[in-house]
Amino acid sequence: SSVKDTNDGSVEYKGKTIPLIKLKNILQVSPEAKSSMKEIIVTEFKDREIGIEISKIKSQHEIVVKPIAKSLKPSNIFSGATILGNGEVVLILEIGTIINEGEKQWR
Question: pLDDT tens, 1-47?
């Protein structure tokens, strides 16, 4: 489905206005070059739909999530890690924490 940015911290999705979280703000990363194209993941959390703006979807994999030792976790934003077929280690985001942090953007 098509998603339309309303430029007020929300997006139009399937005829409804849903809140939008900018992942770059939560992860505190520098914005990449401005682009008119955005990728938005729409997810349901606690019976409501929420959009999460990302830079791009690189690929999709079925994975086994391995826990991260608390002493190595930089924050609760990451729930675990996995090793891809090419040997690359990838951190797994904790959607609940992302949404809770994102709610602070809306206040």
Answer: 567 666 678 889 999 999 999 888 888 877 665 655 678 899 998 89
Judge whether residue 106 has pLDDT over 70.
Answer: no
- Coil, helix or strand at residue 90: strand
DSSP SS3 for 75: coil
Phi and psi angles of residue 80, each rounded to the nearest 5 degrees, phi first = 175, -165
Q: Which residues 6+ apart lie within 8 Å of 1 measured at CB?
A: 13, 14, 42
Cβ–Cβ under 8 Å, residues 78 and 96: no
Report CA-CA distances (Å) from 24 to 5, 54, 62, 63, 70: 16, 7, 24, 24, 23
Q: Which amino acid is at 69?
A: A
| Alpha-carbon span 7 to 2, nearest angstrom | 16
CA-wise closest residue to 102 among 45, 55, 32: 45
